[in-house]
Design brief:
The protein has 3 domains: 126 residues, no CATH class; 162 residues, Alpha-Beta Plaits; 142 residues, 2-Layer Sandwich (Alpha-Beta Plaits). Helix content is 54%, strand content 15%. α2 runs antiparallel to α3 and α11 runs antiparallel to α12. The protein starts with 6 loop residues before the first helix and ends with a helix. About 2% of the residues have low confidence.
């Protein structure tokens, strides 16, 4: 049967042979012989056989009905022997050792199989968690990992420094040498940044984030980043016979209170873009902020990213779609009634209306980037854990807006009215526009 791959038939035959054999044995020799105990051990093996068949994508049969049959055979044998004595009586010594033997066999089976299943489940969860929390291309932790790590810092009173870096002219690299070269650059830089002794995450696209504790005994964060910048600048990148140089720009900020670390990340992001607009290939810290640099990637009212940053993200998503590696969702939130708020209560209240609605979006989608793409319109690009939890998160978003809009005790500019929609990229979508069209 195994040779001919009649695996379901094989499993059923083995189970029924043992079940019938042991049932007849206990009926003929008595309950004290212990043969019935094997019916319990058989159930564990049967479920493991089904699990193995499912895991290996083989033909399998659901064993639940047979295990229920085994339960009835076990209990039925006990009831039968209650009123019908066994035909044969084994010597007392033989009954004792048979009971011990079957007990050992069943316990060994149960312990071994259950321990194996625990190991398999734990290994699978660890692998899934790793895949969820690490970038596949670079091997670095991703935004989901960082958000989980950030939760553990809330109770920590240590001071931290944060830096965000960006590969300069990365789009030009893709356009000139191809997306495979872009992958090579990202993977190479990921290998350089990994193992530096600080937490380094792939923040998205060609952006990387660094975080570590501030300690006078360890090192100067600015010098640390400057060394990385110089190391990358000096590497002679070569792909398919073509040589080129790569530079990176860094924005760094510090905080003494981990509760405000989100603001510190935004500050580092601002400094990054200040550096991008003032020559690139530098580390920008507090003393190096250039006031005249246009921080063109952040919305000044809500502090989320703006239309320019959104267009940059769309370019990155288009690249992923072209590579066949895209996996994202899009949430569109349109704020309704903004004109009425402005006319009745003034522009200040209108701005509060926009900011409050944005805060709800950011509180729900903590692992994704939020963009304000027009005066009353926001877009969330769902990635990492938010992508997998999108339905529950979207429901939570709608519920929060519904609750706020129905709260008569709040002022009008806190009763947010919105139109929310969700779409997910599928393999049939040729570009980002196909996905976005479904949320309009």
């Amino acid at each position: 049967m195994v040779y001919k791959e009649w695996l379901p038939t094989y499993a059923v035959t083995v189970y029924m042979e043992v079940a019938i054999h042991m049932t007849l044995a206990v009926l003929l020799t008595g309950w004290e012989s212990g043969f019935q105990v094997t019916l319990i051990g058989m159930n564990v093996l049967a479920f493991y056989a089904e699990y193995t068949g499912r895991s290996l994508k083989l033909k399998y049969i659901r064993v639940m009905p047979f295990c229920i049959l085994g339960m009835f055979l076990y209990l039925g044998s006990r009831v039968y022997l209650r009123y019908n004595p066994a035909q044969y009586a084994l010597p007392e010594e033989a009954q004792f050792w048979l009971t011990i033997l079957w007990g050992v066999i069943v316990f060994v089976i149960n312990i071994s199989v259950l321990q194996l299943l625990v190991y398999i489940a734990n290994t699978s969860e660890e692998k899934q968690e790793y895949q969820l929390s690490h970038d596949k291309l670079t091997g670095l932790p991703n935004r989901y990992f960082f958000s989980s790590y950030l939760e553990n810092l809330k109770s920590d009173n240590c001071s931290y420094w944060v830096a965000i870096s960006d590969i300069d002219n990365f789009k030009k690299i893709n356009d000139t040498y191809g997306h495979n070269c872009g992958d090579y650059v990202l993977k190479t830089i990921g290998g350089i940044l990994d193992g530096k002794g600080v937490l380094c995450c792939r923040w998205g696209g060609e952006e990387f984030l660094f975080l570590d504790k501030i300690s006078k005994k360890k090192y100067d964060p600015y010098e640390f980043l400057e060394q990385i910048r110089k190391e990358i600048e000096d590497i002679p990148f070569e792909f398919e016979g073509k040589r080129f140089r790569i530079t990176m720009t860094f924005g760094m900020s510090t905080c003494t209170d981990t509760v405000c670390i989100e603001d510190v990340i935004r500050d580092a992001d601002e400094k990054l873009y200040a550096g991008k607009h003032s020559g690139k290939n530098k580390v920008v810290v507090a003393k190096d902020v250039i006031p005249s640099a246009p921080l063109s990637y952040q919305d000044q009212l809500t502090r989320v990213k703006n239309k320019s940053a959104y267009d940059k993200m769309v370019e990155s998503l288009e690249w992923d779609i072209g590579k066949g590696t895209a996996q994202f969702g899009v949430v569109r939130v349109v704020i309704e009634g903004l004109r009425d708020i402005n006319e009745k209560y003034g522009n200040d209240k209108g701005n509060a209306y926009i900011s409050g609605a944005c805060k709800i979006i950011c509180s729900v989608f903590v692992n994704s980037q939020v963009f304000r793409i027009s005066g009353d319109e926001f877009v969330v690009i769902l990635t990492n854990r938010d992508y997998y939890d999108r339905d529950a998160l979207f429901t939570s978003l709608e519920n929060k807006y519904t609750k706020a809009s129905q709260d008569d005790s709040s002022p009008a500019w806190c009763r947010y009215r919105t139109d929310c929609s969700l779409a997910v990229y599928s393999k049939g979508d040729k570009n980002y526009g196909d996905v976005f069209a479904r949320v309009k």
